[in-house]
Amino acid sequence: MGRMSGESTPEGPGDLPEYAERVLATAELIPPGRVMTYGDVAEWLGESGPRQVGRVMALYGGAVPWWRVVRADGALLPGHERRALAHYRAEGTPLRQPRGGSGRTPRIDLAAARWDGGTGAAAAGDGAAPRGAGGGAERGAGARGHIGQHPSSGP
């Protein structure tokens, strides 16, 4: 998985594609205990989609808090579940316990853990989730929030 496995690491900061640099910078902004989905990151950046963000994270994400960029269903990254779970527990990230008892991997509680890109954390039902989070495949119908100010847009 790129940086996550120690492969395909660019030699220096100038070796990363500009879009990849922006994705990684966004991942670094997510506070401990909070998450953004791949789609949230794409929307925050105003371009591409969740698959492109996922590709960047797979190739280059090992040097940033990759566990804070998650799937829209809250499932942990396949192959990295144990490492991610250790980070989530250390940071106090809200988790949903799986149905069916022990031995099953929990999921991220997106309603409680999702970050809106602003100074505070997105809370369930407060409309603070990133724009687009209320519709489409990521979440059911609900209030659409507004995303925080992008770091490159200035004060």
TrEMBL record:
This protein's UniProt keywords: DNA damage
Protein name: MGMT family protein
Biased composition, class Low complexity, residue ranges: 114-131
Species annotation: Streptomyces xinghaiensis
GO biological process: DNA repair
Region (Disordered), start-end ranges: 114-155
Gly residues composition bias: residue spans: 132-145
Gene3D superfamilies named in the record: Winged helix-like DNA-binding domain superfamily/Winged helix DNA-binding domain
InterPro entries cross-referenced by the UniProt entry: ATL_DNA_repair, MethylDNA_cys_MeTrfase_DNA-bd, MethylDNA_cys_MeTrfase_DNAb, WH-like_DNA-bd_sf
GO MF term (any one): catalytic activity
Residue ranges of every copy of the Methylated-DNA-[protein]-cysteine S-methyltransferase DNA binding domain listed in the record: 19-79
